[in-house]
């Protein structure tokens, strides 16, 4: 089929309608079929159409001068090669269920394309994910690395499900040991509560996050610092991330989850649900409006997958905790 360029698009005559009807290419008009640059370049590459006065090389040279075009084209080509019908959408693309096309099916994925160095602003990303959910679509990030390889991520913002009410904790007294505290009330913390680290049978050391949580819930009294004001002022001096970590820790405990340090995994918390013996989640606490490079997120997701855990980033917003989950997927 022969086509012509019309600015940023490529236009076919009415004979192009067959491409739409059979394979879901382009947008039908009374005059013919209008193709996006990604669609046109793919069809030229596959020798399905020719464009007057243009070659594949001239078209790719022209189109690739636009920011992000090559990344979008690589994702478009990959989806087509996998048998999906893919069209420009509210993010970068909308993708139909395999075997379906416009007029006979509905879109299943919304895809946002980005590079390995792009910054992810979690608040903005959460908004896009929630918008996709309202449209009953799955939100997918397609990351293109410097060697033009593609990795797809399923992104969700579901709040953690409550595993049960937070267990009651009796009041205990303790003494300070740096920014941790030590209590002799070891019987107040049975193994099921999973607080602290035993020094011996008579002494239990509580971490700074545990200490702040127990102070906030009124369950802990410190000798010489009854209201905990001194230790509350001292903990931030050693931990610049204490505020968001403390908010996330408190929320997880309130939902019946047990957060423990995930230092060996490079994150803030490994999280146990209910009475399970193995942690299911890695959670990293972030301040409001936080951003991270996609490369950092990729490393975190790969590590979490290797130890059979889900990877969640928790943004401590004023109106609550916004959890964003990333998982590698094969489409």
Could you name the ranges where pLDDT drops below 50 across 5 or more consecutive residues? none
Query: What distance lies between the first and last C-alpha atoms, to the nearest angstrom?
Result: 30 Å
Largest sheet: 10 strands, mixed
Radius of gyration: 27 Å
**Tell me, what is the CATH class of the domain at 165-239?**
Alpha Beta
Please indicate the percent range of residues in DSSP E strands (runs of 2 or more): 25-35%
CATH homology-level superfamily of the domain at 165-239: tRNA intron endonuclease, N-terminal domain
Please provide the count of β strands. 22
Total helices: the number is: 9
Tell the overall outline.
Answer: elongated
Question: Strand order, biggest sheet?
Answer: 6-7-8-10-11-22-21-19-18-17
State the helicity in percent bands: 25-40%
> Architecture of the domain at 165-239, according to CATH?
3-Layer(aba) Sandwich
- Class from secondary-structure proportions: alpha+beta
Organism: Methanogenium marinum
Pfam family, one: tRNA_int_endo_N
Enzyme class: lyase
Domain tRNA intron endonuclease N-terminal: 1-57, 180-226
């Amino acid at each position: 089929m022969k086509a012509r360029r019309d600015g940023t698009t490529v236009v076919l005559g009415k004979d192009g309608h067959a491409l739409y009807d059979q394979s879901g290419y382009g947008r039908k008009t009374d005059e013919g079929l209008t193709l996006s640059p990604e669609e046109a370049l793919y069809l030229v590459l596959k020798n399905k159409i020719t464009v007057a006065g243009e070659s594949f090389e001239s078209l790719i040279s022209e189109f690739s001068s636009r920011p992000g075009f090559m990344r979008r084209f690589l994702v478009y080509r990959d989806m087509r090669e996998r048998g999906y019908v893919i069209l420009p959408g509210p993010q970068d693309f909308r993708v139909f269920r395999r075997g379906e096309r416009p007029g006979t099916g509905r879109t299943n994925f919304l895809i946002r394309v980005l590079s390995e160095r792009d910054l992810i602003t979690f608040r903005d990303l959460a908004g896009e994910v929630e918008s996709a959910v309202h449209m009953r679509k799955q939100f997918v990030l397609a990351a293109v690395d410097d060697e033009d390889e593609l990795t797809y991520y399923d992104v969700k913002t579901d709040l953690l499900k409550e595993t049960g009410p937070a267990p009651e904790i009796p009041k205990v007294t303790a003494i300070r040991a740096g920014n941790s505290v030590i209590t002799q009330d070891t019987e107040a913390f049975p193994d099921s509560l999973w607080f602290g680290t035993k020094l011996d049978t008579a002494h239990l050391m509580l971490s700074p996050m545990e200490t702040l949580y127990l102070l906030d819930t009124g369950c802990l009294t410190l000798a010489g610092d009854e209201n905990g004001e001194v230790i509350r002022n001292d903990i931030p001096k050693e931990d610049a991330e204490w505020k968001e970590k403390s908010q996330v820790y408190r929320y997880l405990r309130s939902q019946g989850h047990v957060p423990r340090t995930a230092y060996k995994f490079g994150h803030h918390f490994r999280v146990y649900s209910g009475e399970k013996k193995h942690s299911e989640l890695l959670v990293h606490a972030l301040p409001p409006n936080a951003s991270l490079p996609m490369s950092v997120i990729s490393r975190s997701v790969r590590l979490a997958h290797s130890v059979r855990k889900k990877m969640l980033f928790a943004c401590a917003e004023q109106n609550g905790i916004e959890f964003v989950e990333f998982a590698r997927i094969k489409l």
